[in-house]
Amino acid sequence: MNAVDTIKAFLVLAAAAGAYGGLRVFQVKAKPEPELVRKLFHISGGILGLSLPWIFNDVVPVLALGVIVGGALVALRVVPRLRSGLGQVVFGVERQTIGELCYLASIGLLFWLTGDDKLLYSVPLLILAFADAFAALIGEQYGKLQLHMTGDRKSYEGALAFFLTAFFCVHVPVLLWGKTTRLESLMIGVDLSILVMMAEAAAWWGLDNLIIPIWGYMLLKSLLGMDAAELAGHLAFVLSL
After folding, report:
1. Are 147 and 201 in contact (CB under 8 A)?
2. 155-212 pLDDT, tens per residue?
3. Contacts of 220 (CB under 8 A, 6+ apart)
4. In terms of C-beta density within 10 A (0-12 exposed, 13-18 middle, 19 or more buried), how is residue 225 classed?
5. What pTM was estimated for this model as a whole?
6. Which of 195, 210, 199 shows the shortest CA–CA distance to 241?
7. Alpha carbon of 239 to those of 190, 222, 233: distances in Å?
């Protein structure tokens, strides 16, 4: 890792620390629900992750950042004094999860898998950052119709929020920056959002933070290679599920 990448990595770490510190101040001053703070951390991490392909050309500094941030998150989890203070941003919700580490792993894997293709990198990460967070918040506040799945408590309302948010996270970037027609981008958005929503509903223990972006990447890469007729057939099959 050269000197320029080292400076860039330091600035990214400083931005991450600033965002985390801001969330902790918000948590102490405003005393919001712990789930809200956790999901704001989730979204801010996704936004920071989205910037990485525009900052780095090589995967090494991204992996180095992942190791450093991962080590910090482990310390916040296992050191009692840290967990009861700064760690409340992430661990204020009592839940058995390795989601924060899966999140970091998914960013590193996406960066490595997608190379220079910023569309393939950005869309799955947008879904992870926003659709997953909104699904949890809507499900927590308004979820009445429970999904009877193994693991985390999830609802139909949360699943619907995930689908709607994921659709826009897919449709808008694909339409604006992809090489598809409006109809094709619409079908890709619906198709991918349904399949990733189903995967998210079935995941537990924080593994959705790894499943959503990698599954989303695989689906998007496949769907972008289809024409309108193939997409229509694939979507018909997905809807039948």
Report:
1. yes
2. 888 889 999 999 999 999 999 987 899 999 999 999 999 999 988 877 777 788 999 9
3. 119, 120, 123, 124, 170, 174, 188, 192
4. exposed
5. 0.91
6. 195
7. 9, 18, 10
CA dist list (Å): 86 to 17, 21, 41, 95, 162: 11, 8, 12, 17, 29
For 24, the token pair is 């902790």
Kindly give, in sequence order, each residue whose CB lies less than 8 Å from that of residue 196, ignoring residues fewer than 6 positions away.
Answer: 127, 131, 162, 166, 212, 215, 216, 219
Residue pLDDT, tens place only, 61-83: 999 999 999 999 999 999 999 99
The tally of CA atoms less than 13 A away on the side-chain side of residue 40 is: 18
Q: Would you state the structure tokens that stand for residue 179, as one six-digit string?
A: 């090489």
Judged by DSSP in three states, 241 sits in: coil
- Interatomic CA distance for residues 54 and 49, integer angstroms: 10
